[in-house]
Amino acid sequence: xxxxxxxxxxxxxxxxxxxxxxxxxxxxxxxxxxxxxxxxxxxxxxxxxxxxxxxxxxxxxxxxxxxxxxxxxxxxxxxxxxxxxxxxxxxxxxxxxxxxxxxxxxxxxxxxxxxxxxxxxxxxxxxxxxxxxxxxxxxxxxxxxxxxxxxxxxxxxxxxxxxxxxxxxxxxxxxxxxxxxxxxxxxxxxxxxxxxxxxxxxxxxxxxxxxxxxxxxxxxxxxxxxxxxxxxxxxxxxxxxxxxxxxxxxxxxxxxxxxxxxxxxxxxxxxxxxxxxxxxxxxxxxxx
Length: 288
Known about the structure:
Blueprint: H1 3-57, E1 74-80, H2 90-106, E2 111-117, H3 119-128, E3 134-136, H4 146-161, E4 167-175, E5 181-189, H5 199-203, H6 212-287
Parallel strand pairs: 1-2, 1-4, 2-3
Antiparallel strand pairs: 4-5
Helix pairs in contact: 1-6, 4-6
Subcellular location: Cell membrane; Membrane
GO molecular function: ATP binding; hydrolase activity; proton-transporting ATP synthase activity, rotational mechanism
Function: Produces ATP from ADP in the presence of a proton gradient across the membrane. The gamma chain is believed to be important in regulating ATPase activity and the flow of protons through the CF(0) complex.
């Protein structure tokens, strides 16, 4: 490779490095905003779950279709991923978790329907020939919106209430920290939680108006909507964190390549200068 080719390649990698730097800065700015929202929403969601479990466990005989556990013949899976790539293993981890869940459910002779939020995962499933029930794109472009979560979950709720599906799961990446986004599987329908002995004492002094049953009727539907909205927040924060780290690694790799190519360029240039000096010296000696 000539010195001119090396110089051209260094310039090309330098331009790529500028792009990856800019993408890292954009991802970092978006992450700060969505991370704040996601972390603030967690305590609210946890308290919501506590109250629902208390009301469902310590309310007199109460009937609500969201709490009915029936024989499972059909399962609906909602997969929350991203529309864009360049975010490391973010989408790959979701795909792997989804395939494992589908395989586990199918092995028990149960039918599976998949709703995909995010173009990258949809493209993979389409390539593999895995049929998807619904596909949404642009939902997590810049922000997570409750109205979008409500729109998507309303379809799954209707199928559950009409007994077309018996269970509904959400698969998403939970934002743990800047380095970790954990693939998570959450069952949202029928609603069920693990028991805690101290929950009855915690809420026994509370007064629920007009009644526990009426409050539970009101908040169960909202909880299902908020479960998907919560996965939107966690997934979006995880996506920006993963993209920021990926672009940081790409920027560092570009810098390393520029250093190596610059060394090759300097060696090639030094060799060319040495060759010219030898030719000049030889010509002078020949003229003598």
